[in-house]
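[User]
Protein folding is very new to me. Any chance you could explain this protein sequence and its structure tokens? I have pasted everything here:
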Amino acid sequence: MNRLRLVKVLIVAMAILIPALWITGAQSQDAEDVHFFLNMVEIKGSTSTDTLTAPEIDPTTLSQGYRYKAPGVLDANAPNKWEVSSYMFSDASMVIRKGDKVKVTLFGVNGDEHLVYVQSPTGEMLVETQQMNRGREYVIEFEAEEAGYYKLVCANHAPTMTSNILAVPDA
């Protein structure tokens, strides 16, 4: 695992664990209405010079969430220039308590189409797949009836476009 990926994994783990430990250490509280605002975005990176060689393996073969414009395809006038991109939800992880009523407002910044659904901690479809498009706002709602990870997933850009919503049990 390269260093940048390891740092990202550690940051996500801390973002999940620290609030979870704090919440589970608190006294039991009544369920709340929790509202998150997320963007559906595409992160892009391209070469600025002709010195960095293109990846040996086409990133699109590694994940549905990756996009790739090969040398010569991105810019006909710069035959060695290439670009990679990946889709994601921002925020990638959130913490709630079991019993909370969750509302997620999503805004499509990039991508023509996202097929978004929510899975319960047991893997059951909690919110049926909805088509979401760029430039529009959508709302998903559910109640966290059990502790564990709820997954907000874009079917056409998973696994990179997945958010984890951790429902922690009452203390």
About this structure: Confidence is low (pLDDT under 50) at residues 21-27. DSSP finds one helix and ten strands in the chain. Residues 20 and 168 are 7 Å apart (CA to CA).
